[in-house]
Amino acid sequence: MAQALSTRYPLVMVPGMLGFVRLLLYPYWFGIPAALRRGGAQVFVVQVSPVNSNEVRGEQLLRIIERIRRETGADKVNLIGHSQGALTARYAAAKYPQWIASVTSVAGPNRGSELADYYVRRYPADSACGRLLALALRVLAGGIWLLETGQRGPLLPIDVEASHRSLTSEGAALFNRQYPQGVPTTWGGRGAEEVNGVRYYSWSGIVQDKRSDSGGNRFDGSHFFCRLNVRGFFRERECDGMVGRLSSHLGQVIGDDYPLDHLDIVNQSLGLVGKGADPVRLFTEHAARLKAAGL
Ligand code: CA
């Protein structure tokens, strides 16, 4: 596979909410950057505020892209965002399309997450439970900063309410009105594949009986968590435990029903996924796709 994945522009991997580069020795994108690099891709795994709005995270990402452009001499980058990382990438591409070759949404809540809707409804910010939840998120974000070994730097700003607002269906609708690039104009449709010279792609999975709960996932606590969350979804029963199948659509939809939950899709935890599922391959195939498109 040598050089088969040597895309013209570097790949920049943007994590979702409560994301990180590496906690001590534990990477967020489990085994994925290594597989891409083996194929000759230049990969940057980055960190932005683990709990904040798409806009604040997007501005931080733009500063990182500025640095990568300076260091590599590349005109543009390919952004690959998981979960809220997709919306973060979309913001950056909307603001500086001349710096971005493509945006790829991996299980991105492009139309919001019913799970976020559930939490905001069930635990309003001014309730005791809401305050407790906000405190827990701040503690988690602080813990991520303490344990982060992949990208050292000052503590990034945390804003729990802004984070929630960015991820609800209502918040995503507002965001999409300002930054509509690549978002389907009809529910469940396909979005524009190219806007302002930026290519848009997406893929996502859904929790599936007898498939996603097989193999290593039988031992993965995060899969039980995702399965439990499915009960909080009413508009889209087909979901990955955090994001609905159709809500994830952006630009060219590569696939939206892989038997992968929201964390399987980045090969968590520790590569424990359903039998036969291969989330890493989706990334290597995509790098080959970007290369073939001259990106
Ligand atoms: Ca898993």
Label this structure with key terms:
7-stranded mixed β-sheet, two-stranded antiparallel ribbon, alpha/beta, Rossmann fold, binds calcium ion, 37% helix, 14% strand, 9 helices, globular, 295 residues
What does this structure look like?
This protein is of the alpha/beta class. It has one domain (11-292): Alpha/Beta hydrolase fold, catalytic domain (Rossmann fold). It is built from nine helices and nine strands. The chain has helices spanning 32-38, 54-72, 84-95, 114-122, 128-147, 160-167, 169-178, 221-229, 279-292, and strands at 11-14, 22-23, 26-27, 43-45, 77-82, 100-106, 194-195, 198-205, 252-258. The strands form two sheets. Strands 1, 4, 5, 6, 7, 8 and 9 form a seven-stranded mixed sheet that branches. Helix 2 crosses helix 3 and helix 6 packs across helix 7 (169-178). The chain is globular. Residues 217, 220, 222-223, 263-264, 268-269, 272-273 line the site of calcium ion. Calcium ion is lined by residues 217, 220, 222-223, 263-264, 268-269, 272-273.
Structure at a glance:
With 295 residues, the chain is an alpha/beta fold. 37% of the residues lie in helices and 14% in strands. The longest helix is centred in the middle third of the chain and has 20 residues, at 128-147.
SSE arrangement:
Elements lengths: L10 E4 L7 E2 L2 E2 L4 H7 L4 E3 L8 H19 L4 E6 L1 H12 L4 E7 L7 H9 L5 H20 L12 H8 L1 H10 L15 E2 L2 E8 L15 H9 L22 E7 L20 H14 L3
Parallel strand pairs: 1-4, 1-5, 5-6, 6-8, 8-9
Antiparallel strand pairs: 2-3, 7-8
Bound molecules: calcium ion.
